[in-house]
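Re-run with default settings, no changes from the original entry. Doing this only to confirm the output is reproducible before filing.
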Amino acid sequence: MEARIVVSAVCVFSRDGRLLTVRKRGTDRFMHPGGKPEPGESPAHAASRELEEEVGIVVGPESLEPLGVWIARAANEAGRDIEATVFTAPGTYDPAEVHAAAEIAELRWIDPAAEPEADLAPLLTDHVLPLLARRP
């Protein structure tokens, strides 16, 4: 069995309550902005760095709110699992001010209460969206 892929991810919400998802170049699944930590980097620091690199949102690691840690099937690496530490970015964001950068090919804002589309990552469909549905 291969080792789990450790990642950090961030829930980013628009002013109307939609959740930001991203699709990386060369892949077909939408997921949270985020990625793998660099050596010695904490989950929050990795999340903060990846958020800025991928979508241009600058949030200090101390401002990210922990949402949970889950094991899920990797969206883009067959037969692998991820161990994801997921955070929520503070406040809300104007979709017009968020942009795809680095390896991000496409952004999509989704209604977290809607039926999940088939092209969402398992972390979203199996863990994060059900949790968000239970929150006030």
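The radius of gyration is 14 Å. The first strand starts at residue 5 and ends at 11.
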